[in-house]
Design brief:
275 residues; 50% helix; globular; 10 strands; alpha/beta; 2-enoyl-CoA Hydratase, Chain A, domain 1
Length: 275
């Protein structure tokens, strides 16, 4: 197996090479927060956006496999980062660019991507989890798009992919209500490729990654490229949703959303929107 020198600058994501050109990308959980879940702080958010470009040009990687560590796949954004975004225009502009790049870099990465989701799957990690070419979830996984609970529009991947995967009616139900969906239900409605018992999650993900790595790389990559034109056609919808999400970070609701999360209570948002 080759070295990881191409990824020497990555400090938040952990990387491991497997045989047959499979690169494992791990969002660490241990020590990330008290819950043992991976939290996307400023550095991890940047790395999640950037790494797909490096994987794309890595001659030793045929397939990327992304997973979480600890009690779940990903816990969403770090509240300190959210607070900085709400209060600082420069931070908000920087994170908007990273959120845009994360989605488009996953879509445009020529190498197939496999995700293995267990436990809670929220936030920036969920972007890669659901945009992965083959998404595999534990039946007990809890997939949540937490944006409306925070008080901002569901913008960082939802509008570009949820309606395509599970239909508009289901997308609106889960996104507007911020309703959790189990891995088993996510497979039933088409939101993920496959749901398995949690004990089978990593063996199945490795098996799928190895099958992709052993196949015709031109055929697989070009098929991915063609299919992802469905997502590229939804680019203007995604760009609008992301702009509206980040407009929300400059508004009042996000402050109540943050307070309610810190205080572990239901949010009490103010009255109607000014439009």
């Amino acid at each position: 197996m080759s070295d990881l020198s191409l990824y020497s600058g990555y400090t938040s994501l952990h990387l491991r090479r497997h045989a047959h050109g499979v690169l494992e990308v791990v969002m660490p959980g241990a020590g990330a927060n008290k819950s043992g879940l991976s939290t996307a702080d400023a550095n991890m958010h940047r790395e999640l956006a950037d790494i797909w470009r490096d994987i794309d040009r890595d001659p030793d990687t045929r397939v990327a496999l992304i997973r979480g560590e600890g009690k779940g796949f990903s816990a969403g954004g770090d509240l300190a980062l959210v607070e900085d975004m709400a209060n600082d225009f420069d931070v908000r502009a920087r994170v908007w660019r990273e959120a845009r790049d994360l989605v488009y870099n996953v879509i445009n990465c020529s190498k197939p991507i496999v995700s293995a989701m267990h436990g809670p799957a929220v936030g920036a990690g969920l972007v890669a989890g659901l945009l992965a070419d083959i998404s595999i979830a534990a039946k007990t996984a809890r997939i949540i798009d937490g944006h409306t609970r925070l008080g901002v529009a569901a913008g960082d991947h939802a509008a570009i992919v949820w309606p395509l995967l599970c239909g508009m009616a289901k997308a609106k139900y889960y996104l507007l209500l911020c309703e959790p969906v189990s891995g088993e239900e996510a497979e039933r409605i088409g939101l993920v490729s496959l749901a398995v018992e949690e004990s089978e999650l990593m063996p199945k993900a490795i098996e799928v990654a190895n099958r992709l790595a052993s196949g015709s790389q031109t055929a697989i990559r070009w098929t991915k490229y063609a299919l992802n034109n469905w997502l590229r056609m939804a680019g203007p919808t995604f760009d609008t949703s992301l702009a509206l999400e980040f407009m929300g970070f400059a508004g009042p609701d996000v402050h109540e959303g943050m307070r309610s999360l810190r205080e572990r209570r239901a949010p009490d948002f103010p009255g109607g929107a000014p439009f």
